[in-house]
Design brief:
This protein has about 350 residues and is mainly beta. About 5% of the residues lie in helices and about 40% in strands. The longest helix is centred in the first third of the chain and has 6 residues.
Length: about 350
């Protein structure tokens, strides 16, 4: 049985009250969410000694999320990741989008889904967040109706289900931007934690982190995580892909993307705590980000924690970055005749 409780999470700078929703199951897993950005605030799971460990970076109140610039735990939209040149042609018309990442468009623009209040509906086992992104928001076409549902399972897993529909052709590529540290959100560098990614290819980028359109085999490269290895292995490699990104910040193409409704995409674990995270998804790709740009000068995290460079990793399930410019990538265009349906599951366990 799942309990769902609410409490105040402070007020936004506009005076909007934010709510914290806390979910708990009977196996000592606790998840906290807020309606600002439909954000995942915390995930507490037991370590091998049975001690609860919060494995997600975040803030103690809504003000931290307004000040922070790293998208901690937020829902990203309309388009996760980057669009090269901040331009997109949709149904024969070119749209100029915000250039909020040098000359490119990142994570939905200046005021993406992460910076909006969402309408919340409490469920027996979770929370459903809804909003309508109106035609012209961040210069995207069409009225996009979005629902994101978080559900806590008794098996110590968190399911995130995405649904969207539109009244005009538009881009829709949603993800959650949780930052994980399986030793604890405040425990520092994750380089010694282990990672496996079920992908034989990744999408290399130019120096601005825009994919070239190539699907490159990981064989013989530092991008080969098909067999588990430490995150820090190759993180400072001399190859230009690593040097441009300051570490890992790339999209991997799942080997099992054709399997439905979800497929195994990645697994991570920490020797110190024994905590293991398994990620399954319906999405064709995952952006593995090794926290290269977490700013130690940013707002203090939960309980005053100071987060720093490589203090967490992200597994952002998604369609491929800049897909609007690459016909060989899975499409990110949503039409009125279609329904956007995606799901990602983060399941937790313990290794002895």
């Amino acid at each position: 049985m799942i309990s769902v409780k609410t409490s105040s999470f402070g007020k936004t700078k506009n005076g909007d009250p934010a709510t914290l929703f806390t979910l708990q199951n009977e196996h000592e897993m606790t998840v906290a969410l807020t309606d600002y950005g439909a954000t995942l605030v915390s995930v507490e799971v037991p370590d091998r000694a049975g001690k609860p460990v919060d494995v997600v970076l975040g803030y103690d109140s809504v003000s931290g999320y307004e000040k922070g610039g790293a998208y901690f735990g937020a829902i990203i939209g309309r388009c996760a990741n980057r669009i090269g040149g901040a331009q997109a042609e949709i149904a024969g018309k070119t749209y100029q989008l915000a250039q909020n990442d040098a000359a490119n468009h990142l994570h939905g623009g200046n005021v993406g889904f992460d910076k909006h209040m969402w309408q919340a509906t409490m469920l027996e086992d979770g929370v459903r967040f809804s909003r309508i992104s109106k035609d012209g928001e961040e210069n995207y076409p069409g009225n996009l109706s979005v629902q994101v549902t978080y559900q806590l399972l008794d098996e110590n897993a968190l399911t995130i289900s995405y649904h969207a529909s539109t009244d005009a052709a538009t881009i829709c590529n949603l993800t959650n931007h949780a930052y994980f540290n399986l030793a604890g959100h405040d425990s520092g560098d994750v380089s010694d934690q282990w990672l496996e990614i079920a992908a034989s290819a990744f999408t290399p980028t130019d120096s601005g982190s825009i994919p070239t359109g190539e699907l490159r085999n990981v064989e013989g490269t530092v991008f080969d995580f098909r067999k588990p290895k430490r995150i820090g292995d190759g993180i400072d490699d001399a190859c230009e892909q690593i040097q441009w990104a300051g570490g890992f910040d790339h999209n991997w193409a799942s080997d099992f993307a054709s399997e439905k409704p979800t497929h195994f995409i990645a697994r991570a674990w920490c020797e110190k705590t024994g905590i293991e995270l398994t990620c399954t998804s319906s999405q064709p790709g995952v952006q593995f980000y090794s926290g290269n740009s977490i700013d130690p000068a940013g707002p203090a995290g939960k309980n005053g924690a100071k987060y720093g460079r490589r203090g967490a990793f992200c597994l952002e399930t998604q369609a491929f970055p800049d897909a609007i410019h690459h016909a060989n990538f899975p499409s990110v265009v949503l039409t009125p005749q279609e329904s956007y349906e995606q799901k990602t599951v983060y399941a937790f366990g313990v290794r002895d």
